[in-house]
Amino acid sequence: QVRLVESGGGSVQAGGSLRLSCAASGSIPIFVPMGWYRQAPGQQRELVATITGRGRTNYTDSVKGRFTISRDNIKNTVYLQMNSLKTEDTAVYYCAIPAINHWGQGTQVTVSS
């Protein structure tokens, strides 16, 4: 059984930084793409960033240049470094393996002005 556990969320002022981590365990296909998604109150869940097993990345336009996704294939962990945070980044952030439809429980990120 696949399990994804996020950590690193919290509250920060605008302009600050946070680093999210997602530890994956279980029967995970090797080099499977992983991603971060977020859902703000009253909004649909949206893609933030994805990374392939070989490190190719993709970002939604609103976070380009501010967020960086990375992964450690040995530790089965994916990271999201978030810099220059804005109030509109406030959301619950979810780690996911879309190919096998597995999601973490989410971690709250709150950015205040």
* Form type: globular
Mean pLDDT, nearest integer?
95
Could you spell the SSE succession in H and E letters?
EEEEEEEEEEE
pLDDT below 50 for ≥5 consecutive residues: which ranges?
A: none
Please state the structural category. mainly beta
Q: Distance N terminus to C terminus?
A: 40 Å
Cα-atom Rg, whole angstroms? 13 Å
- Report the helical percentage: under 10%
Main sheet? 7 strands, mixed
Total helices: the number is 0
Strand content: over 45%
Number of strands: 11
Describe it.
The protein is globular, with a radius of gyration of 13 Å. A hairpin with a 4-residue loop joins strand 7 and strand 8 (77-82). It is mainly beta. Helices cover 0% and strands 52% of the residues. The strands form two sheets. Strands 2, 4, 5, 6, 9, 10 and 11 form a seven-stranded mixed beta sheet that branches.
Explain briefly what this protein structure is.
The chain has 113 residues and is mainly β. It has strands at residues 3-7, 10-13, 18-25, 34-39, 46-51, 57-59, 67-72, 77-82, 91-97, 102-103, 107-112.
Please give the structural blueprint.
Elements: E1 3-7, E2 10-13, E3 18-25, E4 34-39, E5 46-51, E6 57-59, E7 67-72, E8 77-82, E9 91-97, E10 102-103, E11 107-112
Parallel strand pairs: 2-11
Antiparallel strand pairs: 1-3, 3-8, 4-5, 4-9, 5-6, 7-8, 9-10, 9-11
Can you tag this structure with a few keywords?
single chain; mainly beta; 7-stranded mixed β-sheet; 11 strands; globular
